[in-house]
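Training component of the fellowship. As part of building independent skills, the fellow (R.M.) carried out the full modelling exercise for a liganded target. The chosen ligand was S-adenosylmethionine. The inputs are recorded below so that the supervisory panel can assess the work.
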Amino acid sequence: MYKPAEDTFFLEDALKFYKGKCALEIGIGSGYLTHGLCKNYNLVVGTDISFNSLLFAKSNYLKNDNNVFLVCTDLAFPLQNKFDLIISNPPYLPQGSVQFEDNTVHGGAKGIEVSLKLIKNCLPLLNRTGKLLIVRSNLSDLRRMDQMMQELSINKRVVARKRLFFEELEILELSKK
Ligand SMILES: C[S@@+](CC[C@H](N)C(=O)[O-])C[C@H]1O[C@@H](n2cnc3c(N)ncnc32)[C@H](O)[C@@H]1O
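Fellow's submitted model of the complex:
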């Protein structure tokens, strides 16, 4: 299970600028950010591919939240609701030549494959004015990611940047054109 870390708190800081009724977090890990959403949205859905993460979240950060629904799934594929806000701090490090795969941090060969799949899956779940916030790192292939988003005709805005010891993180705000 992914414990709240620097990237978690970075995304948390950006959330205060958004409001709405329904929110979704993809890849909730410990449930730390989902708990924050529960305080500000009427209905919150959280997904994770790891059942153990959902169990941890349910009995820790989310134990007193009664407006949250948790789904163990790949991204948000079974969902059909519409959301005002979707957030994700997805696995974004490139797998590169590393032999083992840790799906809490490795986002595919170039670090962007999971994020691109997530974006394609989630954009149709946004309300007309809904926003998708996603964390990304300059250790992944950002040029290719930008190119793919341009082809998908997505509105894109960098809402925050943060330099860490070994990488630079960005939060992208994406919406439908
Ligand atoms: C970097 S951690 C972030 C956890 C938490 N949101 C946070 O910010 O602390 C990424 C999370 O995404 C989950 N994950 C990875 N691939 C996924 C997928 N295809 N569908 C849903 N969740 C996934 C991992 O299990 C992990 O909990």
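The panel noted the following from the submitted structure. Residues 2, 4, 8, 26-30, 32-33, 47-50, 53, 74-75, 89-91, 103-105, 114 surround S-adenosylmethionine (CB under 6 Å). The first strand starts at residue 22 and ends at 26.
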